[in-house]
Give the backbone structure.
Amino acid sequence: MLTALLGTPYEPDFRGALLFLEDVREPSYRIDRMVTQWVQSGRLRKIGGIVVANFTSAKHGEEEEIRRVFASVGTRLSVPVWYGFPAGHTRPNYPLPFGVRARIDGRGQLFLLESPVTAT
């Protein structure tokens, strides 16, 4: 879990990164608590945006609350947030390349700025 890495030598460098998040059966209040901790730690101040998969919530009807949590974070950090990216533990589950330069816009479009595969 990302929250457990904050303040440790294993914490990722978030500067300019698109942060991809997904979880299953986690109550909305826990998602809110974790995201609030990340924001208050200051670690997400320089991220490029947040890509969020569809969270499968613990209770029926909590997904809208989780969506509001991430919308609020995007506003507080002044970064685009794409909620509902089709990757993670839900279907469809599209591949998401890690380690390539990319950006998202406010309309929920992902732009790969380099190829996720290398030519041989």
Observations:
- The first helix runs from residue 2 to 5.
